Amino acid sequence: MSGIALYVLGGINLGIGVYSLFSTLGYYRYAKHSRRQNSEGTYCPSVALLVPCCGDEEGLEENLRALIRQDYGEFKVILIVEDGSDPAVPIIELVLSSENRSGELVVAGPAERRGQKIHNLIAGLGRAGDAEVFAFADSDGRPDRCWLANLVSPLREPKVGVASSYRFYLPEPGCLASVLRSAWNAGVLTLLGDHDRNFAWGGSMAIRRTIFEKAKVEDAWRGALSDDYALTHAVRRAGYYVKFVPRAIVASRGHVRMRELLRWCARQMAITRVYWPNLWRLGGGSQVAFVVFLIGGGMATASGSVEASALLSAVLLLSWLSGGIRARAVRLLLPEWSPQLRRYEWAYVLLAPVASFITVYGFLSSALSRRIEWRGKVYEMLSPSDTLVLGSAAPSVEAMARKIR
Fold first, then answer.
1. Calpha distance 249→354 (Å, rounded)
2. d(Cα 134, Cα 322) in Å, to the nearest integer?
3. SS3 state at 382
4. Where does residue 59 fall: left (phi above 0), alpha (psi -120 to 50 degrees), or beta otherwise?
5. In this structure, how many other beta carbons lie within 10 angstroms of the beta carbon of residue 239?
6. Element (H or E) spanning 78, and its range?
C-alpha cells in the first residue's frame, strides 16, 4: 500500500472513529437518562406475547419462565413451534403446566415461500384473541421482570409505530467465541437511540393491533424471511416511526463456537443486504476500510514509519474508547448482570477492533450469496418479499454434540 493511500485511509478512519465515539457517548447518555425514567405501569393495554420456539436450546426453560413471569397486568403467552415433535414441546408443556399464567402452545406446520419464524408468528396471531397489543420475543432471550412493561409503555405515543429494543449476548466464561460475539453485537447498539433511524428487532418488539393492521404488516410478511426488517419498513411506509427502548434490552446466554459465530455473522449481514442494502453497504464498507487500514498501518509501523504508527495508534485508541463506553452503557441497562460484565470489560475494549474482522468476513460472504441457514432450514432470499425454502439443513457437528450430551 502506498503512503498516500495509507494516509487517506487513516484520515477516513479517524473521521469514522470520532463519529463513532460521539455516537457511543450519545448512546451512553441516552441509556443513563432512561434508567431514571419510571415507565412501568403508565400504559398497560392487554397484550398477546408471541414466542416462536425451535429445539431444546441452552437455557430454554429458564428463558420461557422469565417471559411468563413478567410484572404486567393482562397478557397471554403464545408459544409456537413448527411441529409437535419439536424437542422444545416437552419443555414448553412443563413450563405452561407449572406457571399461573394464561398460555398456549400452537403448532404452526411447515412454512412455504417464507421464513419459518414468520409462518409461526402468523399462526400465533390467530390465537391472540382481542389483545390490544402484539408483543414479540425470542426463546433464546432472558428478560428481566419489567421488560414487557418497559417495552409496551412507549406505544401510548400516537406516532410510535413499534417499540423495540435489542439483545445483548452475555460473555460466557472460558469461551473466546462467546466473548467476541458479545463485543461484535455490542457495536450494533450504537446504531440505535433517540432518533428516527431505528430498526425493530424481532426478539423485543411491540406494536398496537390497530397499527399492525393499518400498516398491513401481515401482507409485508407474505414471502419474507426477516420479520423485524419487513415490519420496520411497513410501519415507516404507514407514517410511523420505530421507538428504541433501552430499558427493554434482552440478555441472551449460550456458548458458541468460532464456526457458529462466523456463520451467524454472515447470516446477519446477508439478511441486512436484502432488506436494508444501504445500511449493508455503509456498515460493511466502513469495516473493510478499517481492516485494510489496520493491516496496512501495522505493516508500515513494523517497517519503522513513525507517522503510520501515530495514525494507527489514534485510530485504535478511538476504537478502544468506544468499546469501553459501550460496555459501561450496557451495565447501566442490565444491572443484574453488571458483576459479570465488569469482569469482561477489558474484552469490549480490546476486542472492538478484532470484531471488525468478523464483520468483514460476514460482509464478503453475504456479497457472494443470499443463501442462509437458519434454525435448521436453508433459505434463498430472492428479494424482501420472495423467499425460497430449500429444505432442512444437515445437522452441524455442534448440534450433534449437544444431542449426544
1. 24
2. 35
3. strand
4. left
5. 11
6. strand 75-81
Q: Quote the radius of gyration of the chain (alpha carbons, Å).
A: 21
Residues contacting 273, CB < 8 A, separation 6+: 280, 366, 367, 370
- Please state, in angstroms and rounded to a whole number, the distance separating the CA atoms of residues 46 and 354: 44
Question: Distance between CA 36 and CA 217 in Å, rounded?
Answer: 33
Q: Are strands 160-164 and 241-244 parallel, antiparallel or unpaired?
A: parallel
Does an H or E element contain 135, and which? strand 133-137
Residue 404 has pLDDT above 70, yes or no: no
Dist CA 227 CA 378 (whole Å) = 16
Domain borders along the chain are 3-29+259-404, 38-257
Local structure of 131: helix, strand or coil: coil
- Amino acid occupying residue 292: V
- 204 has which bridge partners? 137
pLDDT digits (tens, 9 = 90+) for 49-86: 999 999 988 899 999 999 999 999 899 999 999 999 99
Task: Report the 10 Å Cβ neighbour count for 108.
Answer: 20
- Indicate the helix (H) or strand (E) that contains 366: helix 352-368
Sheet bearing 47-52, strands edge to edge: 103-107, 75-81, 47-52, 133-137, 204-208, 160-164, 241-244
Q: Is the whole-model pTM more than 0.85?
A: yes
| Superfamily (CATH H level) for 38-257 | Spore Coat Polysaccharide Biosynthesis Protein SpsA; Chain A (3.90.550.10)
| Alpha-carbon distances, residue 316 vs 246, 310, 313, 345, 386 (angstroms) | 27, 10, 5, 17, 41
C-alpha distances (whole Å) from 117 to each of 110, 206, 267, 285 are 10, 16, 15, 30
Q: How many CA atoms within 13 Å lie on the side-chain side of 331?
A: 15
If residue 289 lies in a helix (H) or strand (E), which one and from where to where?
Answer: helix 277-302
Grid cell listed for 205: 418488539
List, for residues 361-398, the tens digit of each pLDDT value: 999 999 999 999 988 899 999 999 999 999 887 655 44
What does the mean pLDDT of the chain come to? 90
* Helix 227-237 vs helix 258-275: crossing angle, to nearest 10: 20
